Amino acid sequence: EKAGFDHFMLKEIYEQPKAYRDTMMGRISDDGRSVELTEIGMTADEIRAIRKIHIVACGTAMHAGLVGKTVLESLARIPVETDVASEYRYRSPIITPDTLVIVVSQSGETADTLAALREAKRCGARVLAITNVVGSSVSREADDVIITQAGPEIAVASTKAYTSQLIAFYLLGLFLAETLGTKDSAFIAEVVTAMHQLPEQVESILDNAPVLKQVAENLSKHNNLFFIGRGVDFAVAQEGSLKLKEISYIHSEAYAAGELKHGTLALIEEGIPVISLITQEDLYEKTLSNIKEVKARGAHVLGVVNEGFEGEVAKSVDELFAIPKTLPLLSPALSVVPLQLIAYYASLARGNDVDKPRNLAKSVTVE
Ligand code: M6R
Q1: Where is the active site (predicted)?
Q2: What is the reported pLDDT for 363?
Q3: Active site residue 325
């Protein structure tokens, strides 16, 4: 059932190109200029009445939500807040009938996420679920459901579910933008064209897995490391850090690159690995200056960078991994893949049970 792969996690990482295609399938018009989410029952008037969005989820699904916030705010221009589900209800959030609450859950059974959904409904908000499991509790109780077509995810560490959730957010963002008129059809067509290229681009990253295996084997000898990035790169950094912790048991922290000098820089010492994401053109100079800060203190830096920027970045980092060029908003769907592979190979190098890490369950059905 692992289809020739040593672990479910690796199989699921390699299934991502298919998961992207399947999640997009049937949801984009033939001319590629419009997104059709027929599963969303909201009328155009109801969509226009949305004043704010809350995205609520746990773990990796929350990290998809962090990217989702940027996607929805930039495409639909609706303010978005994100909360981890175990915190949401207890901060007495301001949930009004003009709030759209989006819950994200691979399994659709996570107790805290389900409780957040119920609280949102109790307050009169409309709830949209992004889930991978048809018939799950979340899918049954939400008002609208976008099913990610990732297929069953067995490994405890979520990979293809996360990236499919990103695809769902892109589709939703474009759908809302079209309805609200915040983006024109030429722009939508441009994003759709770039989305169609993602599966092949992921394949080309997977072709370079041996390079990442080597990186991971070196990292696996360390007990502490950092992930840094700005904007959506910071959101991906958080996911990369969680993935690594979860299965390799190596301690890591994800930091907004500009925050380092407000405290964490004190932890940087000779030889400490820093993985830096540098995919956002407009933030690129800023992140480079943060890389120089850690380099000056002896860090060993791996830059995950867009093709075409290697020349500039090469001077400032110790190692480079290039990802194919895409639109800035779409880059998380590519940049997370090397981080998944690094986590996988680091776990393997440490002799851990990759698919069933200690202390963790695939689906957390207790609060
Ligand atoms: O099934 P869900 O998406 O609701 O699960 C949420 C988290 O428990 C899950 O993403 C967890 O963080 C993963 N093990 C991370 O790889």
Answers
A1: 362
A2: 86
A3: no
Residues with CB under 6 A from ligand 1: 58-61, 105-107, 110, 113, 156-158, 246, 363-364
In the block, tokens 């709030």 appear at 99
315-324 average pLDDT score: 95
Q: Report the SS3 class of residue 146.
A: strand
Which has the minimum average pLDDT: 103-117, 165-179, 304-318?
Answer: 304-318
Q: What mean pLDDT comes out for the span 325-336? A: 98
8 Å CB contact between 333 and 167: yes
CA of 327 to the centre of ligand 1 (A): 27
For 138, the token pair is 């979340």
Count Cβ atoms within 10 A of the Cβ of residue 189 and give its class: 0-12 exposed, 13-18 middle, 19 or more buried. middle
Nearest to 119 by CA among 92, 84, 151: 92
Using the predicted structure, report yes or no on whether residue 366 has a pLDDT greater than 90.
no
Reported as half-sphere exposure (CB side, CA atoms, 13 A), residue 184 has a value of 1
Which protein residue's CA is at the shortest distance from atom 8 of ligand 1? 59
- At residue 81, φ and ψ (nearest 5 deg) are -110, 150
